[in-house]
Design goal:
PAZ_dom_sf, paz domain, six-stranded antiparallel beta sheet, 418 residues, alpha+beta
Length: 418
């Protein structure tokens, strides 16, 4: 059996005396009231906090255990773990210049730093929380150090370069002994810092391969994605949390599902949301175009160009269909965008009346919608409709055996448990 423990609460009961004046006391002589002295001095109320024996960081001890009833075994998603007493951890503060506000992007910078500067770190691996904390199992060979990190990539066929200065500063050694003492019940103050450090270490392995959403990890390999309506699908993921409990240190791990975009053609996604069955003779109205812009804006799309995949960010749609949008094309002068890309890729495109996708913000540049697919691994952030919510509820109501398979797969792959 498990009991839910929490902080103690002090209850204060304030009793007031009821008025017991009888009817005989309400005589005319007593009805005459003396002048009331007005005193503008505010009433002093005692707002001193009630003192308790336990500080806010301390938990009350359990008075005892149940003795009546029949004991039974329960299988739960709590994995008992053991922490070696000789384990040591060191806390370093990191700062980025220029500042980075994205947890996913700052993690990329730290991963690249480790690849470039292994020799300066003495091959010691880093556990990063996505903000400003780095933990190591061994002391790094410096008190403070600055690293220059370069990230490179391509966006829309153009190469980009981002340079960052990452500053490391040693803060202190994490007090792991406090956690061992708390588990052994020799101390009552909660070891918050040690628990946070261990959770960061557990979250580090899947960061390189899984999609991070909040504190949960998602990947198509964890379970078969379930199709939702209107171009969405549910990905299976898991979250984990290490906590000291009655039986010792426990890892709570559970599965969940979240909506992601399907990796389908952009025109197919638009057709599903606009409820258009045949796009051959379809002419998009202004109302549908505005709705399509809301669906696609800020979405990452990709196309095949000269044998390699090129990614773009959607900013808007063209005001005119691709067949009516004229662009310069030497030596023929002006030509429609639809005909230009048909000749460029030597392909027969099917939907000339679809509007083109704007891939540049400052200097608008357009490419026909028909050439794009939705890039994989993108979480859907908008509000789900009633049918999608119903499908999501069914997906999250998993059988215990199916949930157990997902948990075991995540444990074996990233937490190295069997």
């Amino acid at each position: 059996m498990f009991s839910k423990e929490g902080p103690s609460y002090a209850h204060v009961l304030v009793q007031g005396k009821k008025s017991s004046a009888s009817k005989t006391d309400q005589s005319p002589s007593k009805a005459v009231q003396s002048p009331v002295k007005t005193d503008k001095t505010p009433v002093q109320t005692d707002k001193t906090p009630i003192k308790t024996d336990e500080s806010p960081s301390k938990l009350p001890r359990r008075p005892g255990y149940g003795k009546s009833g029949v004991p039974c075994k329960v299988r739960a998603n709590l994995l008992c773990t053991q922490l070696q007493k000789e384990v040591k951890m060191y806390f370093y503060e990191v700062k980025f210049s220029p500042a980075i506000w994205s947890k996913k992007w700052s993690t990329k910078v730290i991963l690249q730093l480790y690849v470039d500067s292994k020799h300066l770190l003495n091959q010691h691996k880093l556990a990063y929380d996505g903000k400003s904390c780095v933990y190591t199992s061994k002391r790094l060979p410096f008190e403070s150090e600055d690293f220059d990190v370069k990230l490179t990539g391509t966006n829309g066929g153009k190469e980009w370069l981002m340079e960052y200065k990452v500053s490391f500063k040693f803060i202190r050694e994490v007090d792991i002994t406090s956690l061992n003492q708390f588990i052994e019940r020799s101390r009552t103050d909660y070891p918050q810092e040690a628990i946070k450090a261990l959770n960061v270490v557990l979250q580090t392995p899947p960061l390189a391969t899984y999609e991070l959403v909040g504190d949960s990890f998602f990947d198509r390999s964890l379970g078969d994605p379930r199709s939702l309506t209107e171009g969405l699908e549910l990905w299976v993921g898991y979250f984990q949390s290490l906590r000291p409990r009655q039986m010792g240190l426990s890892l709570n791990i559970n599965s969940l599902a979240r909506p992601f975009y399907q990796t389908i053609d952009v025109y197919e996604f638009v057709a599903k949301n606009l409820e258009v069955r045949d796009l051959s003779g379809y002419i998009m109205s202004d109302k549908d175009r505005i709705k399509a812009i809301c669906l696609l804006k800020d979405l990452m799309v990709e196309m095949l160009h000269e044998g390699r995949v090129v990614r773009y960010k959607v900013y808007a749609l063209s005001d005119q269909p691709a067949v009516e949008l004229m662009v310069s094309h030497d030596p023929e002068g002006e030509i429609s965008l639809f005909d230009r890309y048909s000749k460029l890729y030597l392909t027969q495109m099917k939907y000339p009346n679809l509007h083109a996708i704007q891939i540049r913000k400052s200097t608008p540049e357009y490419i026909p919608m028909e050439l794009f697919k939705i890039a994989p691994g993108q979480r859907y952030r908008s509000t789900l409709n009633a049918k999608q919510v119903s499908g999501m509820r069914k997906a999250n109501c998993q059988k215990p055996t199916d949930r157990e398979k997902i948990i075991k797969k995540a444990c074996i792959r990233h937490i190295c448990l069997t």
